[in-house]
Amino acid sequence: xxxxxxxxxxxxxxxxxxxxxxxxxxxxxxxxxxxxxxxxxxxxxxxxxxxxxxxxxxxxxxxxxxxxxxxxxxxxxxxxxxxxxxxxxxxxxxxxxxxxxxxxxxxxxxxxxxxxxxxxxxxxxxxxxxxxxxxxxxxxxxxxxxxxxxxxxxxxxxxxxxxxxxxxxxxxxxxxx
Length: 177
What we know:
The chain is α+β, with helices and mostly antiparallel strands. 24% of the residues lie in helices and 23% in strands.
């Protein structure tokens, strides 16, 4: 977000208008950021607000980082918002249901550091495990799946929901024992 820039939507042009009372506006930004009647939790830090000078005018840049998956949505003035592309939009009932479900505790596994990969697992043990659970009829292991796809399907690898990376990481797989 940039304060001190005006947009002429008809001409699709921007102009630098500058900001007066920079200190007052900066104080208001942080007051609102930390006011639970405005936001359900703070979303910016001190270093996210930058004051710049351009063409002899002052502008304020506010960096708003994407929220981690497990802390969405943000509520502002009593309404829940979801970031979609270029802006925040009021969340639909379906989106709120989705985020409620996704924010619940996941299966009782913990992500291992990202330095652990499938190469750290014994291929023969994976093959034996697939055979055991297939014979017991626990799940259909689908012989078409690669070992990694199979391990994703049973929760040995899980999406890191605390970041926005959408990467899968090896878990300690406590729930599988």
